[in-house]
Amino acid sequence: MTQNRRSTQNSGCSAWLAKLFGQKTAKNKPGDVRIENLPADPEPLPYRIRDDFLSPAEKSFYHVIKGMMGSTFTICAKVSLADIFFVIRPNENMSAYNRINRKHVDFLICESREMKPLFAIELDDSSHNRSDRIERDAFVDEVFETAELPLIHIPVRASYNTNELGYIFKKALEQSGFLSTPNPRDNNEQQQTTQKDSKPAEEPKNSPSSAPICPKCGTPMILRIAKNGNQPGRKFYGCSNYPKCRMIIPVDEGN
Asked: Which of 18, 105, 187, 208 could lock 120 by a disulfide, CB 3.0 to 4.6 Å apart?
């Protein structure tokens, strides 16, 4: 008798839950709930691989420069400007970020070991003669010029003179500083213009309140102490926007 009562209670409870959630129950078997009207399987996401990641002209040019670059340089295709550049004072310059967020360059040439951008290439076809593209190209050129990263425009051709391209690339590498030979007097200063990647520098407890402003991105700098490198224990000012900005200013401890 008790067991029948429990079965009836379970059946009633299950029916109540099914009714609460908008589900139907079968009446032929007391205590057995059959859920109907189950939601359909979710549709798969609407993404597919593009067959035109590189256009025929871009693919042809890529194979030409790939044979020229060797292992010293790495070619990155279709790189967003937002992955190359950062915006100083982003809270104040959100519109500046939005202007580069959906733009890209055809090729970015990086130094293979550190993957440091050295120069970029735009492959110009007839579409660049449109008024909207002319305006877009002028803005992109200004972005690269402001950030001091060379940008080369190469007209699309059926074939390319590798000697001519080599000369153009060499000029870009010189402009980026990759091929420049620093003056011995400036060698020490050149070595101290960027922070090292291996270990973060230690920040001293007694940092002076008159920290300089980063000459590269305009943010306050932080007094740090080198933990490794050629001069461990050496104090320097590092940009607070690290690692996006690796600018440093050596501290003259003689004064």
From this structure: 105
